[in-house]
Amino acid sequence: MAGFLHFLCAVFYLSLISQGHCQCHPATDLKIFQSQTEVVVQNKPQWKVTIVNDCVCTQVSIKLACDGFQTVEEVDSSILAIGDDGCYVNHEQPVYGHQTFNFTYSWGTQYPFMPIYSESACS
């Protein structure tokens, strides 16, 4: 029995090591902050969105939940591409570790963007 417990502990330890410190998770490692700017577009306040990659690794293919997102200010699709299954950030290009990515939109209220997907690119 003790041998079996040691085996399970070893498997658990190795699984933690194999994940390494460069596994990024969108729900915990992508932080989204928003603030209202002083700009008004078509009588709607402008919001600045800042996405922070709080992981040491680069994250690519970042996707945000954005069902029902609206803006009166055109957002370049290379910055935020609205798709059927979410909004793709930065034309799916990298957001490097501990760096930020920004965009703006204009609407009456702040939209609650939530990160739902990303891929880690560690070296």
TrEMBL record:
Any Pfam family hit: TPD1_C
The organism of origin for this protein: Salix purpurea
Transmembrane segments: none
Keywords: Signal
Range of residues in the leader sequence: 1-22
Name recorded for this polypeptide: PROTEIN TAPETUM DETERMINANT 1-LIKE-RELATED
Gene Ontology annotations of biological process type: cell fate determination
